[in-house]
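Dear colleague,

Thank you for sharing your sequence with our group. We've completed the structure prediction you requested, and as agreed, I am returning the results in plain text so they can be pasted directly into your records. Please verify that the sequence below matches your submission; if there's any discrepancy, let me know and we will rerun it promptly.
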Amino acid sequence: MGEIVTFRRPKAARKHRGNTLCRRGFHKWEVVDRPFDVKQGRLVTRYRCTRCGREKTGAC
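Please find the predicted structure tokens below.
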């Protein structure tokens, strides 16, 4: 038996779930990595939003 594919169009609320928070500045930041910056001489933390994928950096 084959896979069942839904042909129903996704609702707007389901399609844009969580993006309204990010558009208003309420991101859900998660630490990606902490490389050492040679010019600044300290660790730099890179953050990525789990909902929209936007990235930012911050020094420790």
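Summary note from our side: Helices lie at 12-15, 19-23.

Kind regards,
the structure core
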